[in-house]
Amino acid sequence: MVKVWDPLVRIFHWSLVAGFFLAYLTEDDLLDLHVWAGYIVLSLVGVRVLWGIVGTKYARFTDFVYSPQTIKQFILDTFRLRAPRYLGHNPAAGAMIIIMLVFLLLTALSGLAVYATEEGAGPLASILAATGEFWSEVFEETHELLANFTILLIAIHIVGVLMESLIHRENLISAMWHGYKRKTTD
Question: What is the C-alpha separation between 102 and 99, in angstroms, rounded?
Answer without folding.
Answer: 5
